[in-house]
Each structure stands twice: as C-alpha cells, then as structure tokens.
Automatic annotation (TrEMBL):
InterPro entries: ABC_transp_permease (IPR001851), LivM-like (IPR043428). It comes from Zoogloea oleivorans. This is Branched-chain amino acid ABC transporter permease. The keyword Kinase does not apply. It holds the Pfam family BPD_transp_2. The chain crosses the membrane at residues 6-23, 35-57, 77-98, 110-126, 156-176, 206-227, 247-268, 280-299. PANTHER family: BRANCHED AMINO ACID TRANSPORT SYSTEM PERMEASE (PTHR30482:SF18), HIGH-AFFINITY BRANCHED-CHAIN AMINO ACID TRANSPORT SYSTEM PERMEASE (PTHR30482). CDD domains: TM_PBP1_LivM_like. One of its GO terms (cellular component) is plasma membrane. It comes from the Bacteria. It is found in: Cell membrane.
C-alpha cells in the first residue's frame, strides 16, 4: 500500500510539473490554482471526516479566520503577510483546541449541528465587524512578499500552491501509515474498542480537529493573497458544505480521493456554465448519480472494482 501511495504521489508531482506547460491560457491556470487550494483543504478535512470519522460542517469558518488575518493584520497593523498568516493559523489552532473537547463530546447529528453553529458564528462575526473587515462588502488584501520577491503573477502562485499540495499529499500518506494514523482509523471503527486497547480518544479527536483547522486557515490566507480581495462568502455555510461534498464524492478515507473530489467539484461549475441557469440543477443531478452508484466515492469504488487499494 505504501509503495502504491508513493507511486501516486510521483504522478501528482509529475502532473503538477507539466501542467503549466500545457494549459492554453491564464483562465485554466487560475482554475488549476483554485483546484490545488481546495485539494489541500480537503486533504485536511478528509483526515478528520474520512479517517477519524468526525463530521465538521463549519470548516469554512477556519478559512475565514486565516483569510481575514492576512487582510486585517497587514492593512490595519502593518504586519508582514507571512507573520499575519502564521498568526491566523495559530489563532485558528488555539480556537479549535479550546472548542474541540466540548464539541466532540457530542455525536451524530448533534456534533454536526455544533460544528455548523461554530462556522455560522465565525461568519456572523466577520460580517458584523465592518470597521475591521469591511463587513459584507469585504476588503482588499495586500500582496504577499517572500524574501523581497512579490508574488503577483498566476505562475508565481501556481508554483507556491503546487509545492504546498505536494507536501500535503506526502504528509498525509506518512501520517496515515504512522501510529497516529492507525489510531485515527481505530477511532473511526469503534471508539469503545479504541479505548479498550489504550487509545486516548479525546486527545486524538482534538489533535486531528486542530490539524485540519490549521490546514484550512493556511489555505484561507493563501486564497486571500492570491485573489487580492476577501469577502465573508469564503466563510459561509455553503462553502463548508461544498468542501464536505468534495470529501464524499472523491472518497472518504482516501488521500487521492480528496484530490479527485477537489478537482472535479472545482471544475464542474465551470463546465456546466453553458447550461445558462440550469447549471445548479445539472450539478445536483451529477452529485445524486455519483452517490447512488458510487456511495463510497469515486476512488474507493474504482479501486475496489479493479482490485486495487488506495
């Protein structure tokens, strides 16, 4: 399994290296950047949902914290963008760590509602603090600079997010095959059985929730700097549902399922734009068909069909 996983990583790196050479114009390069950003977020979310079996319907709120940290701190306080990004990730991790223990005492629909409420609270706070965040209209984000070099073009940003995606896939593969990853899978299978064999259930739940939240915060900052403008829509409920859908469609507990789900659901709205008003209906129908005929997700279903593990 480890060899197959690393073979998949080599393919991902090769595709990322070749892609800028073959895309016909900047529109497709921009789409590739957004796919990579979503893929990193979904990798972290899949560790929480797919491997640990813990639902989160408010994950876009963590993106909002990272994005607005990268907008507010440099604009109003003169912080360096990298320092602001790190501060956003630290605040997100601390918030997730503090709230995870009471939240993960809940199960099932109660857990889903608690995480949903957390995301909604973050979104409302962003919208209401208009003095700092610009309110519903959003605010501009200063350009990102690295060692005196300013990231301005799509190609610059492509290589940054391609590197982040490659590192995230590598880290996910190693995490899953580590004792920590095996504890997460045991937790998903049965919390009672995990406790019996000595797994600290609460500690692992908190750790993976914090990790996935920090993933989201960092990519929220990247999105903010890449786009150059941020609005509360980045942190709204519908974005959270979109991220969870990417996990489910690609395949829960599948690293490469996360990538496929992010790529497909980022590209699909663009492909359906020619339906002129019916794209939402077509999008919903495609999702329904996928879930009816491939309930475990695309990658696990195809892997089972052709007799290969993820």
């Amino acid at each position: 399994m480890q060899k197959r996983a690393y073979f998949g990583l080599y393919i991902v790196i090769a595709v990322l290296a070749v892609l800028p050479l073959v895309v016909p114009n900047s529109f497709y390069l921009d789409l590739a950047i957004r796919m990579a950003i979503n893929a990193v977020i979904v990798l972290g979310l899949n560790l929480l949902i797919g491997f640990a079996g813990q639902i989160s319907l408010g994950h876009a709120g963590f993106l909002g914290i990272g994005a607005y940290a990268s907008a507010v701190l440099p604009t109003h306080f003169g912080w360096h963008p990298l320092l602001a990004m790190g501060a956003g990730a630290a605040v997100t991790g601390l918030l997730a760590a503090v709230l995870a223990r009471p939240i993960f005492k809940l199960k099932g629909q109660y857990l889903a509602m608690a995480t949903l409420g957390l995301g909604i609270i973050i979104n409302i706070a962003i919208r209401n603090e208009a003095t700092w965040t610009g309110g519903p209209d959003g605010m501009p984000v200063p350009a990102m600079g690295l060692m005196g070099f300013e990231l301005t073009s799509d190609k610059h940003w492509y290589w940054v997010v391609a590197l982040m995606l490659s590192v995230s896939v590598w880290a996910s593969i190693n995490l899953i095959d580590s004792p920590f990853g095996r504890a997460l899978r045991a937790l998903h299978g049965s919390e009672v059985a995990s406790q019996v064999v000595g797994v600290d259930v609460v500690r692992y739940k908190v750790a993976i929730f914090v990790m996935s939240a920090v993933f989201a915060s960092l990519m929220g900052s990247v999105t903010a700097h890449y786009v150059g403008f941020v609005t509360p829509n980045l942190a709204d409920f519908f974005h959270s549902i979109e991220l969870v859908t990417m996990v489910v469609i690609g395949g829960m507990a599948s690293v490469y399922g996360s990538l496929i789900g992010a790529v497909l659901l980022t590209a699909l709205p663009q492909a359906l734009a020619t339906f002129e008003g019916w794209e939402t209906v077509a999008f919903g129908m495609i999702l329904m068909v996928c879930m009816i005929f491939m309930p475990k997700g695309l990658v696990p279903t195809l892997a089972a069909k052709f007799g290969k593990g993820d």
